[in-house]
Design the sequence.
C-alpha cells in the first residue's frame, strides 16, 4: 500500500522531540486579509445591486450583449444605401432591410450589403418578422420574401386582377398576402415556412384590409370592414388554417384598424380611435381609448404597445404612452416638441426628436441618449438596447 504520508507531505516527529509550532500571522497580514474580504463583500453587494436594478427595469444583461457584440465605442457599423424620399426601413435579424421604389437592399449586421435587387414600385411597402422581410408594391402585383442572408425565398407575380393590399410575415415564417379580387371584396393567401400555399379564402360580404398568421402557425386573423346596425365596424375574423370556416371573431366599433400586431399570444389592433387587444378565441382583453387625441405613431415592444398621441390635428403638443396587454396605461409623458419617429423592441423604446435620439424603458424612464442627430430621418431600436440611427444615405448603430 502506498505511503499516504508522502502523498500529503507529512513529516513524522518522535515523542521526545517538540514539533515546531507554526508562526502566528502578524497583525499586518491579518488586517490585509480583512480588507480583502471586506472589498470582496462590497464588490458582491454592488454587483447584486446592479443586477437587481437591471432586472427591475427589464434591461437585464443587455449591456454585456452589446459589449461582446460591438465593443465599447459609442457608435459601431455603418449602413449605406441610396437616398430616396420613399425609403422604407425594417430590422432584419441583426441587420436591416431598405426598400425604395427602385431597390430592395439587405444589409448584414456589420453593414455589408448581401442583397441589392433592382425593382420598379410605385408604392413600396416593407414589413419584417424575425430574420425574414416581405417587400411589395401596394396596388401593384409583385412581392418578394427574403431573409437576412439576402436569399430570395419567394417571388409572387400576381395577376393584374389581384392587386396587392397588404402582406405580413411572422417570426415563424408564415406569410399572409391580402389582395383585391374581382367578384368579391378581398382575398387572403397563406404560405407556410416552406413557401407552400396552405390556406386561402375569399371574402364576399366584407372588405379585407390586412391579415396575420399567429406565431404558433395555427390561426389567421383577418381585418375586415363593414357596417353593423348602421355603424361602421372593423371586425377581426379568426380562421383555423386547417378549416374553411372562421372559428371566432371580435369587433372594433367606430374605428379603422391601421395595423395588426401580435404580442404575448394576443393580437393588437391599432386603430385610429383606440388600441384593442384580442385573442384567437374571440375574447377582447383590453381597450385603450385615445380620448379624442390624434394617433401619430405607434410601435410594439415586449408585452406592451407605445403610442404617440397629439392633442390637436396639427402641431406637436401631445403625449407618449405605453399600454400593457390588458389595455391599461403603463406610463405616459407629455411632449411639446417635434417627434420624427418612434420605435420599440424588447424592453426599449427609441424616440427620435429633432437633433437627438432618446432611448426609454417601457416605464418611459430615460435609459440613454444620443446628441447630434440633426440629419436623422428614422430610428430602429433593437432588443439589445442599441439603435440604428438612419439618415438619408446611411445609418449608424448607437450603443448606449
Sequence:
Amino acid at each position: 500500500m502506498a505511503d499516504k504520508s508522502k502523498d500529503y507531505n507529512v513529516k513524522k516527529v518522535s515523542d521526545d522531540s517538540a514539533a515546531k509550532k507554526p508562526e502566528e500571522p502578524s497583525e499586518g497580514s491579518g488586517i490585509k486579509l480583512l480588507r480583502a474580504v471586506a472589498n470582496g463583500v462590497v464588490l458582491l453587494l454592488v454587483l447584486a445591486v446592479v443586477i437587481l436594478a437591471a432586472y427591475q427595469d427589464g434591461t437585464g444583461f443587455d449591456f454585456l450583449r452589446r459589449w461582446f457584440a460591438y465593443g465599447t465605442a459609442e457608435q459601431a457599423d455603418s449602413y449605406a444605401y441610396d437616398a430616396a424620399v420613399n425609403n422604407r426601413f425594417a430590422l432584419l435579424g441583426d441587420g436591416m432591410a431598405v426598400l425604395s421604389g427602385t431597390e430592395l437592399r439587405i444589409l448584414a449586421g456589420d453593414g455589408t450589403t448581401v442583397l441589392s435587387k433592382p425593382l420598379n414600385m410605385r408604392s413600396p411597402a416593407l414589413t419584417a418578422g424575425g430574420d425574414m422581410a416581405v417587400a411589395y408594391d401596394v396596388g401593384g402585383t409583385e412581392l418578394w420574401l427574403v431573409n437576412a442572408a439576402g436569399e430570395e425565398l419567394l417571388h409572387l407575380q400576381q395577376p393584374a386582377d389581384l392587386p396587392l393590399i397588404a402582406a405580413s410575415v411572422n417570426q415563424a415564417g408564415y406569410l399572409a398576402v391580402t389582395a383585391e379580387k374581382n367578384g368579391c371584396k378581398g382575398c387572403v393567401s397563406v404560405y407556410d415556412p416552406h413557401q407552400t400555399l396552405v390556406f386561402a379564402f375569399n371574402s364576399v360580404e366584407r372588405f379585407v384590409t390586412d391579415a396575420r398568421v399567429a406565431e404558433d402557425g395555427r390561426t389567421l386573423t383577418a381585418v375586415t370592414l363593414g357596417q353593423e346596425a348602421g355603424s361602421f365596424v372593423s371586425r377581426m375574423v379568426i380562421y383555423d388554417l386547417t378549416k374553411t370556416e372562421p372559428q371566432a371573431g371580435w369587433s372594433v366599433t367606430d374605428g379603422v384598424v391601421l395595423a395588426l400586431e401580435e404580442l404575448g399570444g394576443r393580437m393588437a389592433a391599432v386603430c385610429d380611435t383606440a388600441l384593442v387587444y384580442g385573442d384567437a378565441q374571440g375574447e377582447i382583453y383590453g381597450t385603450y381609448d385615445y380620448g379624442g387625441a390624434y394617433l401619430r405613431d405607434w410601435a410594439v415592444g415586449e408585452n406592451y404597445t407605445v403610442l404617440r398621441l397629439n392633442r390637436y390635428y396639427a402641431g406637436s403638443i401631445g403625449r407618449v404612452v405605453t399600454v400593457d396587454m390588458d389595455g391599461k396605461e403603463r406610463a405616459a409623458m407629455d411632449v411639446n416638441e417635434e417627434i420624427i419617429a418612434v420605435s420599440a423592441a424588447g424592453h426599449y423604446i427609441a424616440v427620435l426628436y429633432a437633433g437627438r435620439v432618446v432611448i426609454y424603458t417601457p416605464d418611459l424612464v430615460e435609459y440613454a441618449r444620443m446628441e447630434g442627430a440633426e440629419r436623422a430621418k428614422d430610428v430602429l431600436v433593437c432588443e439589445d438596447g442599441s439603435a440604428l440611427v438612419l439618415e438619408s444615405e446611411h445609418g449608424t448603430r448607437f450603443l448606449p
About this structure: Helices lie at 4-7, 27-56, 62-70.
